[in-house]
Amino acid sequence: MVSAIIVAAGKGIRMNDTTRKQYLDLAGRPILAYSVMAFDACDLIDKIFLVIPKEDIEYCRKNILSLLELKNGLDLVPGGEQRQNSVYNGLQAIDKKTDTVVVHDAVRPFIQPEEIKSCILGAREFGACISGRPASDTIKRVGKSGFIEKTLIRDNIWLAQTPQAFKYELIIRAHETARRDGYIGSDDSLLVERMGIDVKIVNGSKNNIKITAREDLVVARAMLDELVKSQNPTAR
């Protein structure tokens, strides 16, 4: 059994908008709807758990999910104070018979079913597998003073994305260990890494952008517009 946890519990402070970023319009649909539909279209997913702010559950059910035709079951889960807490809430909500868990940020709306499948298959083989991209820019490590401390060798640098897939027993243990230690990581794979467990990374897509600021939304709308035109040349 494969369960997906789609995290959409953020406040969207950097977006500087009265509407949470996950609900902002992207070509007629809220951003999070694209992520939900992509996971619903992946034939390896059995059930989806969408983690949102507790106070938004009724709004999301009536105004977003009711408009989507989903073939898989979907449960709404109240989020936590931080992303890590929200993922943990999702892990607590899923069926404990789940073999593999896939975690994804709802504000990465261009994820494709085949990319989700790639991570799931990687987790089945290695225990933990995430999507990412090799760095194309030169990476500088900068100190608090604002001066460059070191230029990192780009050949071994990858930019982590979601989805990130794990064996259930592994990711729940990683989260519970982090909670016990009072540790907050930047993503779920880091919680696994800190236990000394190897994490496989597979090549993701350059289109799998994360919408965190208003300029990202502008880029996303342009990307979607180009995608529609490429699929329908008469729309040009």
Low-confidence stretches are none
Distance between the termini: 43 Å
Mean pLDDT: 92
- The number of domains: 1
Count the helices. How many? Answer: 7
Could you please say which CATH topology applies here? Answer: Spore Coat Polysaccharide Biosynthesis Protein SpsA, Chain A
Shape: globular
User: Which CATH class applies here?
Assistant: Alpha Beta
In CATH, the homologous superfamily goes by the name Spore Coat Polysaccharide Biosynthesis Protein SpsA, Chain A
Please count the beta strands (DSSP E, at least 2 residues each).
11
Structural class: alpha/beta
CATH architecture: Alpha-Beta Complex
Element pattern in H and E? EEEHEHEHEHEEEEHHEH
Specify Rg, calculated over alpha carbons. Answer: 18 Å
Range of strand content: 15-25%
Strand order of the largest sheet: 5-4-1-6-10-7-11
